[in-house]
Amino acid sequence: MTHFFGISEYGAFVTAFILLLIIPGPGNLAIMTSTAKGGVLGGMMATLGVIAGDQVLLWITVAGVASILKAYAGALVIIQWVGAAYLVWLGAKMIMAKPGDKPILNIKPGQYFKQALVITLFNPKAVVFYLAFFPLFINPQTHLGFITFAVMAATVAILAFIYCFVVVMITHFLAEKIRSNQKVSSFLQKIAGLFLVGFGLKLAFSKI
């Protein structure tokens, strides 16, 4: 499906967003932390926060912020490097953390939606995706204006919900076992930290 409601390479757009979801980042960490603390309900509230954050970033891009940043390419490079530094810092904290230390992301009970929303809005990989890559999938010759953007927004929401729901259910299933084994919990946290550092470095040196 090359063109779909004015979206260039719709299949590539779907694939790109799925990869964005799968790559470890603060959003994934927020969902897993929320689920571990608040069960399925906490995880789903965080999921709604992630989806809401994605929608805000998408419609900000549609409003023309991406075009402005393209005109001032240095601004996007700064966002990219600041985001990369944040991911490396976050990953390093997870790697260096000792058993019994405070959680890296201190998600508070009852604020799962709000905190996941904020984390998504400041998630560097999401910001770079929407500002740098999202406009590439809009066909200026065939796009249908609001309809094209609405289809893209719906696609993003559906894919994010499915992915996050799977993460919530897996995390909920494993949470008790992980909590009961401190060594396993610490090991998984360090692995996640390595992924964050790796993606941060990749983001820093990738070309926009």
* Morphology: globular
Helix content: over 70%
Average residue-wise pLDDT: 76
- The quaternary organization reads as single chain
| Count of individual helical segments | 7
Poorly predicted residue ranges: none
Distance between the termini: 26 Å
Q: What is the count of structural domains?
A: 1
Task: State the strand order across the main sheet.
Answer: 1-2
Strand content: under 5%
The structure class reads mainly alpha
Helix and strand succession? EEHHHHHHH
Radius of gyration: 18 Å
Number of strands: 2
Sheet having the most strands: 2 strands, antiparallel
Task: Supply database-style keywords.
single chain, 208 residues, mainly alpha, two-stranded antiparallel ribbon, 2 strands, 78% helix, globular
